[in-house]
From TrEMBL:
Native organism: Psilocybe cf. subviscida
Domain F-box: 18-64
Name of the protein described by the UniProt record: F-box domain-containing protein
SUPFAM superfamilies: F-box domain (SSF81383)
Coiled-coil portions: none
InterPro entries registered for this protein in UniProt: F-box-like_dom_sf, F-box_dom
Pfam families xrefs: F-box-like
């Protein structure tokens, strides 16, 4: 394929070679092409019309897509289709794969283009962009749950859950709503499970009711619509809902994670002195009815400094948490299930690993599930670090450096991906920066380049308003599979869609 650059008609030797190749059956040609990379398949198309047609065979692109989308020992599932593979043509699969490849290259060059601006009230408690970059899920401050179809940005938002909190509960700042999303990579269609926790301090809310103090578990799936082209619509169903004990208050805005049948969250126990915090695990399939007397595990309590920090479920009955420059893995495999309210010494989780970053550990990513490990990205002051929790050897967990930042990150909450992050330097004359990094068991180097868009992802003048440094006021999310970036600015009521891939 990489012979003379002359046309086959002017190169007798090459013309004879091609004639022999063209005499082979299509099945044999496709079998030979199946050993090529996606780049080589595109190059083959320049050789002859016959090979051009053969290189578009669906089985070739299906095989390449499956290889790239499956989790590996050093990479999670970042790329997926919304619907079963059989619903897509060869060209559609090729385009989705090439969109991912070109977006990764564009990210390392800082290339991004603004596509859509959606102006509407944006105030939200939390937001999550599902894989594929089409569906944006937002938990609003009043407890309602909505979803936006970013491929059709002018469509009305899909209302999943109605508001929970009254204006009175919102006005005294006692109402808290938090959300965690687990995407189900083994599902044949795009699917996710969502846990939403609602909490209102009973003694401060004259209109308090049990409906304001509960846990909802939702199932989200993409279902086929009536069109002939793969598109699908998002369908939501509440799986279960159960009350929280009135004595429990959610401790912090980022205090819940969901994994399979379990949720882990930080509760302050309102009846105890000074409201001590307990890191608690609940199997959400066990509560039944309106009773608060369901089993739960108190994994860490007020005697542990990390009890008040977000616990991230990483599988195998393990929770990852942190305190200042110290990282912990806590096992709750032998923790006792109880339906009693907590007391000071009831926590019985066991620390199985402890590590140090050497720097204050700030924000963390969601867990990334590889085939032999669970990985987490952490920003520690001016370092991006990674934690590798080995699936069958938790005590051998590693802390690795992924890249250094040129200065402090001005925003206290930004999105951390498996290979990418968005960085806001603390220098007022500096542009927003695209970060790319690799893990030690991958090939590649770290890159830090300013975004080259003619529009600012976040105008430097806006950073004079220190409130923007809070997640409620400005948020950036991105999907590593599609290269789509979303910025949400509450003060301007603006949601902006950006694309790194020219194929978007």
């Amino acid at each position: 394929m990489h012979g003379s650059r002359h046309s086959p008609s002017k190169n007798p030797t090459r013309r004879v070679q091609l004639d022999i190749f063209h005499k082979l059956s299509t099945e044999i040609v496709v079998s030979v092409l199946s050993f090529l990379s996606w780049k080589d398949l595109l190059s083959v198309r320049k050789v002859s019309p016959y090979l051009q047609d053969a290189s578009k065979t669906k089985s070739l692109w299906t095989s390449l897509f499956l290889h790239e989308s499956k989790a590996k020992f050093n990479a999670p599932c970042l790329l997926r289709l919304e619907l079963p593979m059989s619903m897509y043509s060869s060209g559609e699969i090729e385009r989705i794969l090439l969109r991912w490849k070109t977006s990764r290259s564009a990210w390392r060059r800082g290339e991004v283009q603004r596509r859509n601006i959606i102006r509407r009230p944006i105030a939200h408690a939390m937001a999550h962009l599902l894989k594929g970059g089409r569906w944006l899920l937002r938990l609003l401050v009043d407890g309602s749950l909505v979803c936006h179809d970013l491929d059709h940005p002018q469509d009305e938002a899909i209302n999943i859950a109605a508001p929970v909190f009254s204006s009175l509960a919102l006005s005294d700042n006692t109402a808290v709503a938090v959300m965690s999303v687990q995407e189900l990579d083994d599902s044949p269609v795009l699917a996710a499970r969502v846990a939403v926790l609602y909490s209102v301090a009973k003694k401060h809310a004259p209109t308090w009711s049990q409906d304001m103090h509960r846990v909802d578990i939702w199932s989200l799936t993409v279902a086929l619509d009536d069109s002939t082209q793969p598109k699908g619509n998002l369908a939501a169903k509440r799986i279960t809902s159960f009350p929280l004990p009135s004595e429990f208050q959610i401790a912090g805005k980022r205090s819940v994670t969901l994994l399979d049948n379990e949720i882990a969250t930080n509760f302050s126990y309102a009846l105890a002195p000074h409201g001590p915090v307990f890191l608690t695990v609940i199997d959400w399939t066990k509560p039944d009815g309106r009773s608060t007397s369901y089993p739960r595990r108190y994994v860490a309590g007020p005697t542990a400094k990390d009890a008040g920090r977000q616990g991230i479920l990483v599988g195998n009955s393990l929770i990852f948490t942190r305190y200042q420059d110290t990282l912990f893995l806590i096992s709750y495999a032998r923790s006792q299930e109880t339906n009693a309210l907590p007391h000071r010494d009831c926590a019985d989780g066991k620390r199985v690993w402890q590590g140090y970053t050497g720097l204050f550990a700030g924000q963390t990513s969601a867990p990334f599930f590889c085939t032999t490990s669970t990985r987490i990205v952490i920003q520690c002051h001016r370092e991006i670090m990674g934690v590798i929790v080995k699936r069958d050897q938790a005590e051998a967990t590693e802390v690795v450096q992924l890249m250094s930042l040129p200065s402090r990150n001005l925003l206290d909450q930004t999105h951390l991906g498996y290979h990418h992050a968005v960085f806001f330097p603390d220098r007022m004359d500096a542009s927003t920066v695209a970060l790319s990094f690799c893990w030690p068991d991958e090939k590649g180097n770290a890159v830090s380049v300013p975004f080259t868009s003619q529009h600012k992802i976040l105008a430097r003048s806006a950073l004079n308003q220190t409130a923007l440094c809070r997640e409620h006021y400005f948020r950036v999310l991105f999907d590593e599979g599609s290269g789509r970036i979303i910025t949400l600015s509450a003060m301007k009521g603006k949601l902006v869609r950006w694309e790194t891939s020219p194929l978007a």
